[in-house]
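Bumping my old thread because nobody answered last time. Still need a sequence for this structure:
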């Protein structure tokens, strides 16, 4: 067997990338052999921007902090271990300082991130 059938990433060691929510550390998004999902450790800033994706579903797992999610105009309270599935087209943002695990399906693609102005 020449190719490994697994990948390993240590999220704390990955560089932070600015995003509409705050700063994301993205694992597996740039793997050309991965068409399934990526994983992001995201620190949400209190001024996250409303955005949506046309193709991608996101699963948020709140790890730390509390606040709420704005999902298509509805405010939903969140706290640690709240899990939210955000389907394509849903305008969303997190409000409040928190740390989340974000699982984009398929893997994150910056061209599919649309900020609502």
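Sorry it took so long. Here it is:
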């Amino acid at each position: 067997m020449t190719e490994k059938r697994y990948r390993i990433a240590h999220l704390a060691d990955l560089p932070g990338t600015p995003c509409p929510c705050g700063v994301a550390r993205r694992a597996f998004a740039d793997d050309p052999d991965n068409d399934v999902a990526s994983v992001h450790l995201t620190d949400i800033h209190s001024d996250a921007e409303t955005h949506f994706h046309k193709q991608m579903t996101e699963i948020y797992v709140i790890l730390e902090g509390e606040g709420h999610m704005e999902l298509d105009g509805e405010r939903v309270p969140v706290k640690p271990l709240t899990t939210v599935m955000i389907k394509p087209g849903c305008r969303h943002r997190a409000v409040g300082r928190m740390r989340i695990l974000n699982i984009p399906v398929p893997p994150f693609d910056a061209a599919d991130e649309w900020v609502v102005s």
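Residues 22 and 44 are 5 Å apart (CA to CA). Let me know if any region looks off to you.
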